[in-house]
Amino acid sequence: MELFVLVLLALIALFVVVALSRAVRIIPQARAGIVERFGKYKETLEPGLNFVVPFIDRVRYLIDMREQVVSFPPAQVITEDNLTVSIDTVIYFQVNDPIAATYEISNYISAVEQLTMTTLRNIVGGMDLEETLTSRERINTGLSTVLDEATGRWGIKVKRVEIKGIDPPPSITDSMEKQMRADRDKRAAILTAEGSRQSAILTAEGNKQSAILNAEGDREAAILRAQADREAQILRAQGEGQAIQTVFQAIHDGRPDQSLLAYQYLQMMPKIAEGDANKVWIVPSEIGKALEGLGSTMNSLRGIPDDVDGPRVRVPTEGVPGLAGAETGDVAGLRDAEASVAAAIEEARAASSEAPAAAVDGAGAADGGVAPHPEA
């Protein structure tokens, strides 16, 4: 009897332990437990410690509520221009309704895969190869829109769809490589030609700037030389003017008599006649009187009158131009000077008695130009 009681107690204890173990359920984080009672949905268990009725309630599924990433095998898709391309896709989705994901679809991952392939064929079938290769964003957007609408009733939210790769046929790949190689060669040739053109332009610009700078330098040098010549001429003219003013002042301060002026006039007459330009010059009628005064001066330079006999003495003549070094004892020299002066007097008288002598060319006669009087 006691043995029977012990066995019964052991069975009861075992039942209690089993019941407790089946009654307590621990749900991990980011999971959801679907509880069924007699095969019918009863409740959804949240993460943490949960209790169910043992032997009556059963936790059938644990649904992963995290965002999942599923990469599907490459799909063979025909483009609009009848070329077969291989497209590899990856989908990011999340279960937001564990009840719908459990009872609305048997295998939501397989359903998403098949729906993705079907939608991809529909989208790519309306594009040619070139558009397919360059319109990944358009394909991704189309897939996300269609999948999100279709999987909403399954309790699934499609977050994002990405195209991992689009592989055209090998023959098309070879043709594309050749085309890309030709395009690269063309761009290289264009860049080389553009570089040569830019180099030529820069060289020409440099030569032009150099020529401009050289021309500006030559111009500045010519301007400086012209300014230097002008300043030299101005200084020379100022010097000559000052010299003339000094001579005039010296003559004015020395109060020259008529004989000195006549002698200066005789010295200037050959220079006036030697000029290259055609001039008109007039001999004044008073020159005879001036030359007569010069003759008297010559007699006074002798120191004695013509009708006086006696010893000859030296007369200082250093101050008289043309007579420096002459001596009163040199009668022949004085006679020659007197003869020259007398001849000059006669020529002056003849010139003053006639019409004004003029050396006039065609242009001078037409203009009626007259040389200024020396005494002026």
Give me a quick take on this structure.
This protein is of the alpha+beta class and about 375 residues long. About 55% of the residues lie in helices and about 15% in strands.
Number of strands: 9
Helix/strand order, N-terminal first: HEEEEEEEEHHHHEHHHHH
- Termini separation comes to 182 Å
State Rg: 68 Å
* Major beta-sheet overview: 4 strands, antiparallel
Pairing-aware structural class of the strands and helices?
A: alpha+beta
Helix percent reads 55-70%
Proportion of β residues? 15-25%
Label the overall shape. Answer: rod-shaped
Number of helices: 10
Mean pLDDT: 75
Low-pLDDT residue spans: 277-283, 301-334, 355-376
3D structure, described in words:
By secondary structure, the chain is α+β, with helices and mostly antiparallel strands. Helices cover 57% and strands 16% of the residues. Among the domains are: 19-64, no CATH class; 67-168, 2-Layer Sandwich (Tetrahydropterin Synthase, Chain A), CATH 3.30.479.30; 256-367, no CATH class. It has helices at 2-23, 98-103, 108-124, 129-134, 136-151, 170-254, 258-273, 287-302, 331-353, 362-367, and strands at 24-27, 31-37, 40-45, 48-51, 57-64, 67-71, 75-78, 84-95, 156-167. The strands form 3 sheets. Strands 6, 7, 8 and 9 form a 4-stranded antiparallel beta sheet that branches. A hairpin with a 5-residue loop joins strand 7 (75-78) and strand 8. The chain is rod-shaped. It starts with a helix and ends in a 9-residue tail after the last helix. Mean pLDDT is 75; it is low at 277-283, 301-334 and 355-376.
